[in-house]
User: Fold this.
Amino acid sequence: MNLNLTDSQRSHMGAVNLDAFFCHINALVDNPAILEEIPGGTTFIFRGTGDTWVDQQNDLLAEQSESPGRNVCRIGSPNIFSLTFPDGRQVSYKTDYFWPESEICQLTKLTARQVRFLEKEKAVVPTLDEKNRLFTFSQLLQMQAYKLIKGTKSISQGFGQDKDVNLKRADLQKLLGFYADYYLKGDIYQHVPMFGNGQVFLVAPDISNSKEVIDAFASMNWRSQNQITFTLYPSLFDVFKQLCENAWTLRDKEVWTQAELEQRLMVVAA
Amino acid sequence: MDEDLSRKDLDLEFLYLLTDRDRIRVRVKTSPKCRPTYVFQLECRFDDSDSWTSVFRADDFHDRPHLDILSPSGKNRKEWLYDFEDDKLNMKEAEQLIKVRWEKERQRYESELN
Assistant:
């Protein structure tokens, strides 16, 4: 295994990967159910660290590390995020593209006022350049999630109803944080965030596997409260699927030109 | 293998590759109810060697969070850390220390080798 790096290149690569590593390990520790699924002896190599050069070096490292009997696992978010529908339509998002507010509104169908609300609540905070407030792909996911949550009153499944997003600021931050965190961790797209008792729980498609939730239920003092409401929200996969549907609609209605589509995302014909 | 790392208290072990010459070995408990709960160990390759050497470690063995500063001479040293009495907080503190010190510890070990 050799990348022929200078000392300063190795220093940079190590620092970037360390940041990604600690983000990953903290997520694992917070979700013991995922931890239990990792085969012992796995070697993790990151991709999608946000640094193109480091990502290239990590790709080389992965190629050199693969050998029979060695469990090498790539983690992190890819540069392209794609979904192919059963009818063959394909939408691919470029995850390094920065979205201005106007495009966010077109794509997610949030109003500018709603985007400003999320910003004011510090649930989604944009990057500022000279002219624009720009949003990352993970923030785009957060905003599409918010739109789905606001627009869907039937998401709650038996634990109570949250008919509007009447969450306190900190709770809204936690809930939308789920979507950014799990996108960045590149994992568990079909798990559903469940909010209740001031916490966001991670629920597997089969709730019986969600040890964290079961432990939390068991530890609650049910007698001391008149009502505890738990609300299930859309999964990260549901959110991404909606983004892909919306992109396809924009293409069909020719709201965006072909050049604009290619710049922001790639929509491939069926 | 070092005494702390060879203990069986932690049931899950994996590696993170940082560069072609640096990696972090992680050992954790899948159901942490008591200490020890974590080990983060920096391992490095030096010169043209293909083998990995343990250089520096953060863990909460011996009931208290600490760093093990490893040496090629075998004269290893412990640095005890403030105990927040919260394992996750201690782990985060250890992460910060590794971020700040990993390169310095690599250079230290390399200079002790020569």
Summary: Chain A has ten helices and eleven strands.
